[in-house]
């Protein structure tokens, strides 16, 4: 049995057509049933649909053989213990700094609100900017509006969320897309099954 962990939400929705091309279609709709392990149209493949931040953990410990997660989550997790053989080019967006549209660009020490603590620390250190990072779990956009932080680090797609909150994107930290990750032991032990899924994904991506 091959277990694939997929990030809930947008990544899952965008991964469905790719999985379908590899003959992997969930038998149940995770929105309608409460099952945590989804059987698929392939008897030898099952899916677990979980929080994005949990995907690298499941794959690292071998609870899932493969996973589909955003590069943002992999960077923050520090996914050196995983193979990352494929950029699936889905759920594309940008990891950016953003600040209030009237705020001056940062001078001196700044406060940054984000859920990407390690990534933000690395980024500001690389820029030679002294940054105090405040960990938040959601609604980062609120932080500059209520004086909690000078700026945020978050994912930006259309920019509408920032705009709706009088914020604007500032510096690009990284272009983000979802990646296929593989457990290192599984890559050896289940090589044939994993190689065939990888191959099918690659063929589908080549056609796009
Ligand atoms: P937008 O308003 O289109 O710029 O989207 C920004 C909001 O959607 C922010 O709350 C982001 O955290 C979230 N977001 C954007 N792209 C992604 C993605 N690829 N994966 C997960 N969340 C995303």
From TrEMBL:
<protein>
    <recommendedName>
        <fullName>ATP phosphoribosyltransferase</fullName>
        <ecNumber>2.4.2.17</ecNumber>
    </recommendedName>
</protein>
<dbReference type="InterPro" id="IPR013820">
    <property type="entry name" value="ATP_PRibTrfase_cat"/>
</dbReference>
<keyword id="KW-0963">Cytoplasm</keyword>
<dbReference type="InterPro" id="IPR024893">
    <property type="entry name" value="ATP_PRibTrfase_HisG_short"/>
</dbReference>
<keyword id="KW-0547">Nucleotide-binding</keyword>
<feature type="domain" description="ATP phosphoribosyltransferase catalytic">
    <location>
        <begin position="51"/>
        <end position="202"/>
    </location>
</feature>
<keyword id="KW-0028">Amino-acid biosynthesis</keyword>
<dbReference type="Pfam" id="PF01634">
    <property type="entry name" value="HisG"/>
</dbReference>
<dbReference type="GO" id="GO:0005737">
    <property type="term" value="C:cytoplasm"/>
</dbReference>
<dbReference type="GO" id="GO:0005524">
    <property type="term" value="F:ATP binding"/>
</dbReference>
<keyword id="KW-0368">Histidine biosynthesis</keyword>
<dbReference type="GO" id="GO:0003879">
    <property type="term" value="F:ATP phosphoribosyltransferase activity"/>
</dbReference>
<comment type="function">
    <text>Catalyzes the condensation of ATP and 5-phosphoribose 1-diphosphate to form N'-(5'-phosphoribosyl)-ATP (PR-ATP). Has a crucial role in the pathway because the rate of histidine biosynthesis seems to be controlled primarily by regulation of HisG enzymatic activity.</text>
</comment>
<dbReference type="InterPro" id="IPR018198">
    <property type="entry name" value="ATP_PRibTrfase_CS"/>
</dbReference>
<comment type="pathway">
    <text>Amino-acid biosynthesis; L-histidine biosynthesis; L-histidine from 5-phospho-alpha-D-ribose 1-diphosphate: step 1/9.</text>
</comment>
<keyword id="KW-0067">ATP-binding</keyword>
<keyword id="KW-0328">Glycosyltransferase</keyword>
<keyword id="KW-0808">Transferase</keyword>
<dbReference type="InterPro" id="IPR001348">
    <property type="entry name" value="ATP_PRibTrfase_HisG"/>
</dbReference>
<dbReference type="GO" id="GO:0000105">
    <property type="term" value="P:L-histidine biosynthetic process"/>
</dbReference>
<comment type="similarity">
    <text>Belongs to the ATP phosphoribosyltransferase family. Short subfamily.</text>
</comment>
<comment type="subunit">
    <text>Heteromultimer composed of HisG and HisZ subunits.</text>
</comment>
